Amino acid sequence: MHRLFPCLTAALMLVGAPASAETSQDEQFWLNLTSMGSIKDDLVYFAEIQPRVGDGVSRIDQALFRGALGWKFSPSVTLYQGFAHIVAPVESGKDVNEERSFQQLNWTLGKPWAGELSSRTRLEQRWRSDGNDMGWRLREMLRYEKPLEPNSDALNALVYAEGFVALNDTDWGARDGFDQLRSFIGAEVGLPGASTLEVGYLNQIINQRGGNTRVNHVASVTLFFRH
Questions:
Q1: What is the largest CA-CA distance in the chain?
Q2: If pLDDT is split at 50, 70 and 90, which confidence band does 14 have?
Q3: DSSP conformation class of 56
Q4: What is the pLDDT of residue 163?
Q5: Which helix (H) or strand (E) holds 6?
């Protein structure tokens, strides 16, 4: 499993890249603060704030505000409808704002190798302030966590991969096809109650205009407050 993500990252960077394409890289820090739980019975919610610091961890690259209401159909399946507001600051210019409506399916697939495998599928409708078109994007995450001590959730090894596919072209720059890939390796730390802290390294490969590629090396910290 430790070898899977570097291999997949390298393959996607090399396959199909034109000779003139360029690859740029950046070091970033992402902080995700998420609150989630039951509103009443099977009606659930989540709300998150996520600042992303980029440009060599020197300035805010993006700020995300996202929330959703969902229905828990079973202990393993939950369906959400949500909305997100994203701000991308532009130096010496006007900020780019993005609004997203999204539908999300969370599904626990099973418990292979004494761990837990889960899926998150998200369909997004996107509008940006620098264009008029609505973009459609599909995201699929596979996540696996495994306790490092038998019968204990105090510390879990954690890996996940999430692929993004744009479903149409837009006048603000989205192009139909592969959009990006995120690969994470790290640990999940149990906190009082059902809350958890996730820390680790996230690699983000972004397909940019003109066949160029952006690779972000991210120190990722996520706090899930569950109640």
A1: 56
A2: very low
A3: T
A4: 98
A5: helix 4-14
For the record, the structure tokens of 79 come out as 């369906």
Task: Give the pair of three-digit tokens for residue 91.
Answer: 């130096």
Cα angle: 67, vertex 224, 111; to 5 degrees: 105
Token representation of residue 63: 């700020």
**Measured between alpha carbons, how far apart are the two ends of the chain, in Å?**
31
Residues 223 and 194: beta-carbon distance below 8 Å: no
Nearest to 40 by CA among 66, 67, 65, 69: 69
Amino acid at 32: N
Q: How far apart are CA 9 and CA 204, in angstroms?
A: 9
Two structure tokens written together for 201: 């390294």
* 3-class DSSP assignment, residue 209: helix
Classify residue 208 by its DSSP letter.
Answer: -
Q: How confident is the model at residue 20 (pLDDT cuts 50, 70, 90)?
A: low
Digit-coded pLDDT (tens) for 46-70: 999 999 999 999 999 999 999 999 9
Count CB neighbours of 150 within 10 A. 6
Question: Which residues have a Cβ under 8 Å from the Cβ of 159 and sit 6 or more positions away?
Answer: 1, 4, 5, 143, 144, 145, 183, 184, 185, 186
